[in-house]
Amino acid sequence: MKMKEYELFIGPQHPGITGNMMYHLWVDGDTVVKAECNVGYLHRGFEKLMESRTWMQNIPLVCRICVPDPDVNEMAYSMAVERLMGWREEVPERARYIRTVVLELSRIAAYLMGIGSYAGALGIYTLPQWALGDRDYIMDIFEQLTGARIYHIYIWPGGVRWDMPADLPKLIEKTMKYLEKRLKLYDDVFFKNRIFFDRAVDIGVIPKEKAIEWGVTGPNLRASGHEYDVRRLEPYAAYENIDFDVIHYPELGKFDVLSSGGDAYTRMLVRRLEIEQSISIIRQALKKMPSGEHLLKHPNWFKWEVPPGIAYERVESSKGEYGYMVVSDGGKKPVRVHVRGPSYTHGINVAETILKGANIADVSQILFSLDICPPDIER
Amino acid sequence: MKAKEIIGRGEEVHGRLYVKVEKQEVRELIKTLKENKFQHFVMLSCIDWIDDGEFELVYHLWSYEYREHVMISTRIKREGEEMESLHDLFPQIETYEREIKEMYGVNFIGNERLTPFFLEGWPHMPPMRKDFDSKKFIKDVFESIPPVEDEDEGI
Prior knowledge:
The complex is a heterodimer of chains A (379) and B (155).
Chain A: E1 6-10, E2 22-28, E3 31-38, H1 46-50, H2 59-62, H3 71-85, H4 93-121, H5 126-146, E4 155-156, E5 159-160, H6 168-191, H7 194-200, H8 208-211, H9 218-223, H10 230-233, H11 264-288, E6 309-316, E7 321-328, E8 336-340, H12 343-354, H13 360-369
Antiparallel strand pairs in A: 1-2, 2-3, 4-5, 6-7, 7-8
Chain B: H1 2-7, E1 11-13, E2 16-21, H2 26-35, E3 40-49, E4 54-63, E5 68-77, E6 83-84, H3 93-104, E7 108-109, H4 134-142
């Protein structure tokens, strides 16, 4: 007798789901026939709220759009405001380097969280414990630099809020050395573990020729074989003066190329290898950091007006392209701020397409390998 | 700018090519750009220009080859005017149109998935419209919920 197709709801309360969202699956036996993403559990109306607050009051709001990687929001918003204000070239050199360090620290923290959750989805519970524990050492750095652990409210239009304390580079270097040591252990436990090879290869494939058209960006795009990185294509902060590799398929360094790219295996290895690149970027930025001012002299916060215009600025986040479109009519408040979150495409159209034909047991790892983050879908 | 050569119009605004067009021309322009290496559809934005009585729809495209960003902008009337759906050109446009329908009330002809997205059972005005007053809404809806009077009730 043929088994009847049935419906399965994963989330919003489920350990195998990437946050406060839900997937509605139609399943035949063990195979997913159709998937539908269902969001709305996290809508906080940030974009609406931003229209009724002044330009500066929005900084504490934007970082809340992505919990694991908040600094990219402050950066993209600040860049768009700087563009409208005509400050683009005036941001102090020191601030650019501090921003680079902050963004890369945030990227490592987000990757640790992403890798940990992914390993959890495969049932290897050592890595989530380790990765989240190690992420806390980065939070310690943030606490010393900005006063906060998660939402830093640190990158402002025109520079950064405070200068970097003189003894902080020592702590950062100590943490980076520690992370390098830990990454070797991560490899032994997870990235060179047979469970990972057997489970992840050729699962959830995003074909190279479709990736750009589907709106795939960031590490997921690079895993499909495109050597594209916003830090390289449209350099911001101090990335222009920093030397780093754009990790992409099939150049996976010390790891074996086991698939034809675009699968969960490659996506996770790209993230793993990018942590090493981030460590190298942080070291270079700290070495090259000049002395001087860290913030432009601002107009009065409450009377500050931004010239009319429309600007779009993008940054490379740990999940993909983050972009802010900011529209001003010359007033004290923005007319419109529209956030382009990377998960908007990854979590909805891309996930719905690649989940078709997957085994139920792989649904969770496919979603985690895309590093979907629901807050940037429903801003 | 390469995009300006391809489509032969537009002006540079803050480093991006900004093209103002009529709504009938949008499809042809995006198609031409897509065929000429502008293959990354970044997003579709809607701006409410309430004083002009218009919505501005902005289609953002990016080319990895030329490293250029194009904004194609078209304006439609706030009340009663519809827009053609372009989800057959890029699949993710479907989601953006779905959000704009919910948040601004713009109808996209040809998009069959304009179902509730973030909001569920929302009988009020689309909330991202400028004339939707959030403070008044909160006052009207939540202040009418009677407070729990008898503290002995329940657990």
